[in-house]
Write a structure and sequence with these properties.
The protein is α/β, with parallel strands linked by helices and about 375 residues long. The protein is about 50% helix and about 10% strand. It has helices at about 5-20, 35-50, 55-70, 75-80, 95-110, 110-125, 135-155, 160-180, 185-195, 205-220, 235-240, 245-260, 275-285, and strands at about 30, 285-290, 290-295, 305-315, 315-325, 330-335, 345, 355-360.
Length: about 375
């Protein structure tokens, strides 16, 4: 399937989704390199056409991608669909219901729904105690235990928060004690982006995993068709951005935007689409320990024509910004409802470090 056919089918799906959920897109991103955003929008429509989806891991990641793009209602429908007996015993998959629940509560603010769903979340996480399956499953389980502890604190359930946190710490220790060498690309990317384990991962594991992966990528072992990418490798782009490796992140992101056939074999399924959506979002904004990081993946050549992000949902409200380079001056304006507790950090490309920075008083 070539990219033109991919885009055409996406338009048909978008028309269907307009009748199902109303407004198709809640977020606007305007950059000169439009193909990156067009591919993201196509992936959003493919996800929506496949909701709620039977496989919990893929459904959970798809739900997170939609929430990050301001699309909440299909996610609530997915949570409702995971009735007793339907949550599949897919390694750490059961915990991914909790992962989606936490994200839905954070992005939608629907605390009333948490009161209804919380007992099920506690029961599910109880079934994960002592589970050790494989690195990919374990990182998903680790994230769900951290999310469960967070939800328990919101509910004032100190006892559950305590055992969930202890179980997460025990699982983390088990994971890192057992790793020697490197992780496969799928698992390494999931560990950084979805499990949010970057601060805990030993540096040698990070170096061995991501340096080796990019060396293979640059050598054409992946991009030249040496092998088919794994279902979660596209998350590597977002991982590189989070590790302050802008050029590597853009290289991987551009490959997956220009070669949707690079995901052939898996098909254009909800396995691959959420990772691409997340990587694009991370280039413009992501959360980091109470802070919003803006611009981590912006290419320096975009600044002359200007960059604009409107109504991007975050854990702290919606963020909007415009930024443009005029001569040797970079002007920016940040607005929206987002109020991160530790503020906002704008990361400019090193190539523009000599430019003068000016904050605009209003959007121009």
């Amino acid at each position: 399937m070539n990219i033109l056919r991919y885009a055409f089918v996406s338009l048909l799906i978008a028309a269907f989704n307009l009748t199902s959920y109303g407004v198709s897109r809640a977020v606007t991103i305007d950059i000169p390199e439009r193909k990156l955003i067009d591919a993201m929008n196509a992936d959003i429509e493919y996800i929506r056409s496949n909701m709620p989806g039977p496989q919990i891991r893929d459904g959970a990641l798809a739900c997170e991608a939609l929430l990050k793009m301001g699309i909440n209602e299909p996610v609530k429908e997915w949570l409702d669909s995971q009735t007793e007996g339907k949550v599949l015993a897919e390694g750490g998959g059961k915990g991914e219901y909790v992962f989606v629940l936490r994200n839905y509560i954070d992005y939608s603010g629907d605390r009333a729904y948490l009161k209804t769903a919380y007992p099920k979340a506690v029961k599910i996480l109880g079934s994960l105690r002592g589970l050790r399956r494989g690195y990919l499953y374990d990182f998903f389980a680790l994230r769900s235990l951290k999310d469960g502890a967070y939800l328990a604190k919101l509910m004032g359930d100190k006892a559950s928060a305590g055992w969930m946190q202890k179980e997460a710490e025990a699982l983390r220790k088990s994971i890192y004690d057992s790793i020697k060498g490197d992780l496969d690309p799928d698992t390494a990317a999931i560990a950084v982006v979805e499990a949010e384990e970057l601060e805990y991962m030993p540096k040698e594991i990070i170096r061995n995993s991501f340096d080796v992966y990019f060396a293979d990528f640059a050598a054409g072992m992946i991009s030249a068709g040496g092998r088919s990418p794994g279902p979660y490798e596209v998350y590597s782009a977002g991982a590189y951005f989070r590790m302050d490796q802008r050029e590597r992140g853009l290289t991987v992101l551009r490959y997956f935007a220009e070669n949707p056939a690079g995901r052939e074999g898996r098909g254009y399924t909800v396995q691959t689409a959420p990772g691409y959506i997340d990587a694009v979002r991370t280039a413009f904004v992501y959360e980091d320990a109470g802070k919003l990081i803006l611009g981590q993946g912006l290419a320096p050549e975009w600044f002359d024509q200007g960059i604009e992000v409107k109504d991007m949902p975050t854990l702290y409200g919606k963020i909007c910004y415009v930024i443009k380079k005029e001569g040797n001056v970079i002007r920016y304006f940040i607005y929206g409802t987002a109020k991160p507790p530790k503020g906002v950090k704008f990361v400019l490309p090193k190539e523009l470090s000599n430019c003068k920075i000016e904050e605009m008083k209003a959007k121009q």
